[in-house]
Amino acid sequence: RMGTRIGFLCFQRIGLTLMGELAAAYGFQSHLAGVRLACELKEGVAADGDALFRAMLAAGEAAIAEDGADVLIAGGAAAADHTDALSQALAVPVLDGITSAVMEIEAAVQ
Question: What CA–CA distance (Å, rounded) separates 39 from 55?
Fold first, then answer.
C-alpha cells in the first residue's frame, strides 16, 4: 500500500468537483484527502514544462500540508513526465493517473 489519503492534482476547474463525485461514486470518498487545481491547461497542453512542474509542486505541497495527503495522483497526460521528480521533491508517491488507468485495464484483461 502506498498511502491511505489521496490528493488529486487536476489541470481543469471541472476536476475540482468531478474528482470528489467520482471518488464518492466508486466508494473511495473516505480516502480522498482533497483535490487541488495545479494550474489550468488549455486543451491539456503545457507550453512550459518547468512552470507546470512548479505549479504541481506548489499544489502537491498544499495537498500534503493542508489536506493530509500521503499519496498524490496527477490527472492528465501533461503531468506524466513530472511524476518521478515530483515524488522525489515531495517525499510521497506521485502517480500519473493515465498510466495508472492503463495498467489497471491491462491487469483486468489478462
Answer: 6
